[in-house]
Amino acid sequence: MLEEDSSLLDSLSEILQKMDEVEYSGAIVEHPLTRRVLLRVKTDGSRLKASEAVKKAVQELKHISAQLRKELEKL
């Protein structure tokens, strides 16, 4: 991902690591000057493809963000 803050991919990686089908997930800053961040995801492939795992993680992150926003608006 280009021009994206690494904290977004760190959050996705955390969610991915909690999935039973995911063997490995990690976000890597390729180089600080290019701001290019890589997300690596490994699954066994038989139960869930890596791309599907990322889609599920994005949906979960959206849900968490919506909950956080709702709680912050109560303050």
Summarize the structure.
This protein is an alpha+beta fold.
Q: How does the SSE layout of this entry go?
A:
Elements: H1 6-17, E1 22-31, E2 36-43, H2 50-74
Antiparallel strand pairs: 1-2
Describe the structure.
With 75 residues, the chain is α+β, with helices and mostly antiparallel strands. It has two helices and two strands. Strands 1-2 form a two-stranded antiparallel sheet. Helix 1 (6-17) packs across helix 2. The model has no long low-confidence stretch (mean pLDDT 90).
Order of helices and strands: HEEH
Overall SS class: alpha+beta
Number of strands: 2
Assigned CATH class: Alpha Beta
Question: What keyword list fits this structure?
Answer:
75 residues; alpha+beta; Gyrase A, domain 2; two-stranded antiparallel ribbon; 2 helices; flat
